């Protein structure tokens, strides 16, 4: 598996898209710092970008890579290799190279700006950690979609739809249900609702760490009590991990049974 | 009969004689020294001996005394901060005469009662009092002024241990007072830092109020007061102004009032108030206002609050001009669609318009009320969706064509740059 991982990783490192992705984050970091002149404000703006863009790029890139390297995959399948290690290796190659572009692209300008001297370092690390989690989750979801659909157009369609659903539509439905059931206590419902969507989960995690929660009165206090304590932090990180593990397991299962 | 004739005939001489006598006694005002080794060992004894105009000098030491009643115009000075320990027997010092000065004591252990408001120092129906440089600890009420006018409360430090509202008192409490100057006091961990009820023409300057269970400064039915240059930190609410009018609130810094019912400034049924040059930073709600008319909010900074300004209804003819609204989660929250207030010339950090003619004023008006703030008012739990893409989308569509928010509620002249206020 490590060989395949290494191969996929180097393959992607040589590809143009990784550089574009890296350059995009580099530019974003530099521009944000240049315009804002304020590290903690830049972290908030960055959050908005990461929450939306990282899942989108993760999904599209994952699907694209799977379809593009399909012939090579079929060649590998002819070799005496375990199927799960082929697909997991490819998956990890994509996810790690994407995460690296993200971490380096954003990290470099911030380090030059004086991140280590600033107290925004924890917020920033949290941002990068959730960004990496989102990459892992959405690449895995993308591989799932690609494995289940032979038709590329269909695959891309589902991938975009998945992103659209989790980034926007889910929140719409969530909000509607909150308004419809407003007569009932909604603390737990909203916490569960957040856990079920990795984008919402990451957003809430970052927001609450940025201490906005304390500014938001009663409900903020309830959420702060949950996310602000170590217990809540552990729960939400395990939820994120679960979001990585379950799709990856499905990749392995699906790959085992799939007929090429 | 003869007597009366005599008095009438020589009344001017007699008056002159008594006046002269009085001034002589004044000139000969004595100083009584109190210490453990002096002839006078207790403050109580010294007060008994003293006559009008005398000075009592209390040397360093601990004096276990309570219920000291000062019924004549004397001056009590503590040297090296002597401690008066009330042993929780109730009230410690009660002033019931004009022109009393109390200076430099540490007063501790006031009794707590649920029926009587025991105070460390109580001033009753007196004029011209000065209470300064006191340190009050382990108290119920601190300095309690009752129907007393023309006095000063200066540079006192009050440190309570209040946890709940019902069994704690206020640090500086004014009831039916006027013309009192409250300056330079440091009040912490009590119920209300400074409390005014039915008190007019009070100046509150340079005070520091922190960690109080209820409010840093609390007005009830008090008019014509000014609040200048104070700092309020981490109180239940910074300032609560209720049922009052004609106030000046200027140059105050109100920060970190966090919690379920926490506000920087709470305005309820107040009219004709000027709020200028204040800084509201990191509060759950910067200002919450209800039923208040003809208020002027000018040159204030609202920085990183949950809500900068929360308008709850029945507020008319208010002016919100030349303020900075910086990085608040919500700038303005509004109930209902009726609107009669002026928003003009403010700087909004969330403004996204442009300035083609380069006059420093944005060419498109700014709408400070977001649709999401309406939703959160209705369903508080929806706050968990803050900064979500979906919320940004509905806010944007509401901005383009207002349906739920008042369509005339906007700043026609939003500034492009942060306003530098002249803060001396």
TrEMBL record, chain A:
<keyword id="KW-1133">Transmembrane helix</keyword>
<feature type="transmembrane region" description="Helical">
    <location>
        <begin position="20"/>
        <end position="36"/>
    </location>
</feature>
<keyword id="KW-0472">Membrane</keyword>
<feature type="transmembrane region" description="Helical">
    <location>
        <begin position="124"/>
        <end position="147"/>
    </location>
</feature>
<feature type="transmembrane region" description="Helical">
    <location>
        <begin position="88"/>
        <end position="112"/>
    </location>
</feature>
<feature type="transmembrane region" description="Helical">
    <location>
        <begin position="159"/>
        <end position="181"/>
    </location>
</feature>
<feature type="transmembrane region" description="Helical">
    <location>
        <begin position="42"/>
        <end position="67"/>
    </location>
</feature>
<feature type="transmembrane region" description="Helical">
    <location>
        <begin position="231"/>
        <end position="252"/>
    </location>
</feature>
<keyword id="KW-0812">Transmembrane</keyword>
<protein>
    <submittedName>
        <fullName>ABC transporter permease</fullName>
    </submittedName>
</protein>
